[in-house]
Specification:
mainly beta, 2 helices, globular
Length: 206
């Protein structure tokens, strides 16, 4: 049996590693998001953040959410809830909150209303486990701070989901796929703000 030369073996190894990295990147691409002020109900609250979905195998994936409250200090307010939904054409999923920086923001059950935005959502996190109310807003994410949450996503088509599935839709655009709730503004006001997906740094450089 003829053995491959060291250089050929190194080339083959590098090719395998590159393929593995490309596959991993496709499953775990981080998507940056920001507040869509044009669809905000009151045009008060603002945020930036990231979504990172990783398919774990079988029917399960993990969604990591990071949100930073960038609302002007003169406006005040806390992020008190957020919700997301994947494209309906990919079938049914369940969502369970597994980790959170903010103990007051607990799991929002599937099928919750995101009024006044249309439809229902798969899940999310909110004070008291609610979108609209749920106790004091001071348990939410204050201005200048960042919260992190992790969710287990389960469904027959979990392998077909990606990070942007939870913010932009799939075959049909969904401007309300990811929505954020603000409460406790300085004038006792509140706001409800959908997210915009931002181009990744790699896409912008291309």
């Amino acid at each position: 049996m003829t053995l491959a030369s060291p250089s050929l073996r190194r080339s083959a190894t590098m090719a395998c590693l590159a393929a593995a990295c490309i596959g991993a990147a496709a499953q775990a691409a981080i998507v940056p998001i920001t507040s869509n002020s044009s669809l905000s109900t009151e045009n008060l609250g603002t945020f930036i953040g990231t979504l990172n979905y990783t398919f774990l195998g079988g029917t399960t994936g993990n969604l990591d959410v990071s949100l930073t409250n960038t609302t002007p200090s003169a406006t005040g307010g806390y992020i008190t809830a957020f919700m997301f939904r994947p494209p309906p054409e990919l079938g049914a999923f369940t969502s369970v909150l597994t980790a959170s920086d903010y103990a007051a923001l607990t799991n929002i059950a599937a099928g919750a209303s995101g009024a006044p935005f249309p439809g229902t959502w798969l899940g999310g996190s909110g004070t008291g486990g609610e979108w609209l109310a749920g106790g004091s807003p001071t348990g939410g994410v204050p201005i200048g701070s960042t919260g992190h949450w992790s969710f287990t996503i389960t469904g027959a088509n979990a392998s077909q989901l990606s990070s942007d599935s939870f913010v932009s839709g799939d075959k049909a655009s969904d401007p309300y796929a990811f929505i954020v709730r603000f409460r406790g503004m300085n004038d006792d006001g509140s706001d409800k703000v959908p997210a915009n997906q931002l181009p990744s740094p790699g896409a912008m450089s291309l």
